[in-house]
């Protein structure tokens, strides 16, 4: 078992490890969905409401107009908000869960209500790895995989777990280690699809209570220790050679059995043997074309040919 100090170090290094792993995978770069419309709406609402208030009280007092305009603008922009199509907002009232808002326009009562979280409900891609995962035959492997998941219940994702993204990453790594520990080294490569499904089932059991569903788990790479790669190559070569020899032996056995059956037929009927001899002579003449020198025993097949044809 790993010590608590080592587990603590891994927990501290988790964000950097995820970032490094994501960079090393060289995923195709794409422009992320913009939230500029949300910010522009808040700025426009702030300027409009604040400017309108300042205009109405401008003649009374300049400082009051400016300070009041800023205050009104801040209150208005924090009260009336918008959420993109893919986003859901968890709203708390006096510290208790109240509702899920979005997408589109929604209102938050200042001081009384607050936005606890903004949850993206699109499919999220998370790369993760299991470094030195030990198989059932005690072989350490390095495995890289990709997890596709999404939040289907924003309330549970916000209330039931502190940081659902980190929780999903740690759960995926643990599930992969557990799944690898149940099989041997030789089965890791041949049962990759089954291993994906097993990790997916383990993750679904853990994340269902968090309002998260796992779409799929895909293993990208399996790193075998360099000192074992040569041994595995020789083992695979020996296995293929063994299979080829067994196949050759089975073929020779089948051919010998056919020869035995043919000999029994020839032994029971002399005419069958003569026909076979004549057929061999015909094939030799056909292949070489012309006169063929053959043993004198071949000529016996043509003896008493008149009686044979009758």
TrEMBL record:
Keywords: Membrane, Transmembrane, Transmembrane helix. InterPro entries: Band-7_stomatin-like, Band_7, Band_7/SPFH_dom_sf, Stomatin_HflK_fam. The chain crosses the membrane at residues 38-58. PANTHER family: AT06885P-RELATED, BAND 7 PROTEIN-RELATED. SUPFAM superfamilies: Band 7/SPFH domain. Pfam families: Band_7. The keyword Zinc does not apply. Belongs to the band 7/mec-2 family. Residues 78-236 form the Band domain. This is Band 7 domain-containing protein. GO terms for cellular component: plasma membrane; side of membrane. The keyword Oxidoreductase does not apply.
């Amino acid at each position: 078992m790993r010590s608590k100090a080592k587990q603590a170090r891994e927990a501290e290094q988790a964000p950097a490890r995820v970032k490094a792993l994501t960079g090393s995978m060289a995923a195709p770069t794409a422009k992320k969905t913009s939230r500029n419309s949300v910010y522009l709406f808040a700025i426009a609402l702030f300027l409009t409401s604040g400017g309108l208030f300042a205009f109405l009280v401008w003649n009374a007092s300049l400082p009051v107009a400016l300070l009041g305009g800023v205050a009104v603008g801040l209150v208005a922009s924090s009260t009336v908000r918008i959420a993109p199509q893919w986003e859901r907002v968890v709203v708390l009232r006096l510290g208790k869960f109240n509702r899920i808002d979005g997408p589109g326009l929604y209102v938050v009562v200042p001081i009384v209500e607050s936005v606890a979280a903004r949850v993206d409900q699109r499919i999220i891609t998370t790369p993760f790895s299991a470094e030195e995962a030990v198989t059932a035959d005690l072989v350490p492997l390095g495995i890289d995989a990709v997890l596709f998941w999404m939040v289907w219940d924003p309330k549970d994702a916000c209330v039931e777990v502190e940081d659902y993204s980190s929780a999903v990453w740690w759960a995926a790594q643990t599930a992969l280690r557990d799944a690898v520990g149940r099989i041997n080294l030789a089965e890791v490569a041949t049962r990759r699809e089954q291993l994906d499904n097993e990790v997916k089932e383990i993750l679904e059991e853990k994340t269902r209570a968090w309002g998260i569903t796992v779409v799929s788990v895909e293993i990208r790479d399996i790193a075998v220790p360099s000192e074992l790669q040569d041994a595995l190559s020789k083992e695979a070569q020996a296995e293929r050679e063994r299979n080829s020899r067994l196949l050759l032996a089975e073929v020779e056995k089948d051919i010998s059995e056919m020869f035995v059956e043919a000999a029994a037929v020839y032994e029971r009927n002399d005419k069958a043997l003569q026909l076979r001899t004549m057929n061999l002579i015909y094939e030799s003449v056909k292949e070489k074309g012309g006169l063929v020198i053959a043993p004198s025993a071949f000529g016996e097949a043509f003896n008493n040919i008149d009686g044979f044809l009758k």
